[in-house]
Amino acid sequence: MFKFILSFAFVFSFSFKIQAQNCNCTENLKWVKKIIEENDAGFQYALDQKGLEAYQAHNAKIEQKLAGIKSNLDCTKLLSEWLQFIRKGHLSIKRIDGKDVDSLVSEANLITKNNHPSVSISEDEFKNYLAKKKEQNLEGIWDSPPYKVAIKKYPEGYKGFIVSSTADNWMTGDVKFTLNNELSAGIYYLRDKTPEKISSTLAIGKNMFQLSNYLYTKIYPIVENTPLEADFVKSYSTDKPYLQKINSKTILLRIPSFNGRQKQTIDSLITVHRPQLEKIENLIIDIRNNGGGSDGSYAEIIPLLYTNPIRTIGVTFYSTKLNNQRMLDFCENYKEYGIDPREIPFYRAAYDSLNNHLGEFVNLKPDRKLISIDSSYKTLPYPKQVAIIINGGNGSTAEQFLLEAKQSKKVKLFGITTAGVLDISNMYFVESPCKEYRLGYALSKSYRIPDMAIDNKGIQPDYYIDKTVQDSQWVDHVRNVLENSK
After folding, report:
1. Greater pLDDT, 354 or 100
2. Do residues 269 and 166 both lie within one domain?
3. What's residue 311's pLDDT?
4. Are both 277 and 387 inside the same structural domain?
5. What is the pLDDT of residue 6?
6. Is 479 in the same domain as 403?
7. Is 51 domain-assigned?
8. Among 77, 95, 113, which residue terminates a domain?
9. Whose CB among 72, 102, 232, 361 lies 3.0–4.6 Å from 472's, allowing a Cys bridge?
10. Are residues 285 and 408 in the same domain?
């Protein structure tokens, strides 16, 4: 039986009823703690790894910061920081209304930040400067509503400054972000002009540029992409799976998500193109930035890869009254989750089984014990080689797909290490008492723990793609490896 190592008094201190009319940040933090401590499948695992004293110290640190909360954004960041102690994946907290941007800070306070850096150059002057350039690069005018930003190169690096904005506290010339010459680090100013470190940058062709989570589209001057860049823009921008024949030897299957709603599209692509897939030498499956979804979404891909029995390690579900509602949710919304309606009786039985073992971890497939072995497919002569392109944006179901696919003798992984968010999984989402926040946490724990833990480690590629290969060149790089291998 599962038991908390926390003392009764410590747990009891978080047992309370939140009044719907008083949901300040303190009360929302208490609610988050209560949900996680009582329901999250990985909470005890985190305590076992890090220790009770570390958890208590983390709580004390967070509670000290409560006095400095002045906005919705501050509160959301604090709640997220509290969750980071538990783990980095399969945990999330977001405002339902999307109003994370300082709605509690007065407009006057926003506008009176007179020390904010600015640039003195008009849009017309900047366009004249661009017209004299012989080569076009990052410099130009970019759009990311509600901001139109000019990016200009300076000796110390790049500055993005406001050309126009519908945000009242942003004026023409205000610096929106700075970047070093290598585009590897910088500062991004949020809606209230609070500075935030830029964690990553990515050029998506010549007319799209991503700074952390902020996407900018070039509106002047627009530069024509190379064919490889155009393909990369297509693959990065779409949320729909697609198949593309590269040449007579190689086909690309791009799958940006395994969301249950994409299952039908993935299945249809494979069905329609099966004659070509079963004659092609090389298949490249690009799942970069695929954060997961439903295991059923990749079911039709496995027969193309299969060479030998696939061993899958099972999971065990933590049973609480709140957690067990997800099984009923599966039954009622099976289409959204990509679940075969014939499986509904299983989920109804699972709900009953879980309710009979509250407070315990339950194996919903006891006949399979720790593992299941699938040998139901035939090895197809084609495709002969399968490359799966991966990166740090792959987690959850995408990583489960990789664990199964890489058991095939046909399959090699190309790219960089994945996110490592799989061991504690099967997310469930609940709303806060005042309907302000949506909290996501996990219901299950893998039997791989501790012998083959994926969390915080990730899955490594067989072929590492280093930084000298641009993102837009990855598919062509992989194609070249496959077609020239002996």
Report:
1. 354
2. no
3. 95
4. yes
5. 26
6. yes
7. yes
8. 95
9. 232
10. yes
3-state secondary structure the chain: CCCCCCCHHHHHCCCCCCCCCCCCHHHHHHHHHHHHHHHCCCHHHHHHHHCHHHHHHHHHHHHHHHHHCCCHHHHHHHHHHHHHCCCCCCCEEEECCCCCCCCCCCHHHHHCCCCCCECCCCHHHHHHHHHCCCCCCCCEEEEECCEEEEEEEECCEEEEEEEEECCCCCCCCEEEEEECCCCCCEEEECCCCCEEECCCEEEECCCEEEECCEEEEEEECCCCCCHHHHHHHHHHHCCCCEEEECCCCEEEEECCCECHHHHHHHHHHHHHHHHHHCCCCEEEEECCCCCCECHHHHCCCHHHHCCCCEEEECEEEECCCCCCHHHHHHHHCCCCCCCCHHHHHHHHHHHHHHHCCCCCEECCCHHHCCEEEECCCCCCCCCCEEEEEECCCCCCHHHHHHHHHCCCCCEEEEECCCCCCCCEEEEEEEECCCCCEEEEEEEEEECCCCCCCCCCCCCCCCEECCCCCCHHHHHHHHHHHHHCCC
Looking at the fold, whether 207 and 264 belong to one and the same domain comes out as no
Overall domain count for the chain = 3
- Domain with residue 403: its CATH number is 3.90.226.10
- Are residues 291 and 210 part of one domain? no
Q: Is residue 445 part of a domain?
A: no
- Please check whether residues 31 and 70 belong to one and the same domain: yes
Under 8 Å between Cβ of 406 and 349: no
**Which domain range does residue 24 map to?**
8-95
Using CA atoms, how far apart are residues 289 and 419, in angstroms rounded to an integer?
A: 10
Of the candidates 442, 402, 403, which has an alpha carbon nearest to the alpha carbon of residue 426? 442
Based on the fold, state whether residues 147 and 205 are members of the same structural domain.
Answer: yes
pLDDT digits (tens, 9 = 90+) for 306-332: 999 999 999 999 999 999 999 999 899
213: pLDDT confidence band, cut at 50, 70 and 90? Answer: confident
Residue 353, in any domain of the structure:
no
**What digits encode the pLDDT tens for the residues 103-152?**
333 333 443 445 799 999 889 999 999 998 888 789 999 999 999 999 99
In this structure, the dihedral spanned by the alpha carbons of residues 59, 64, 66 and 71, taken in order and rounded to 10 degrees, is -120
Residue 417 in any domain: the answer is yes
Whole-number pLDDT of residue 172: 93
* pLDDT at residue 339 greater than cutoff 70: yes
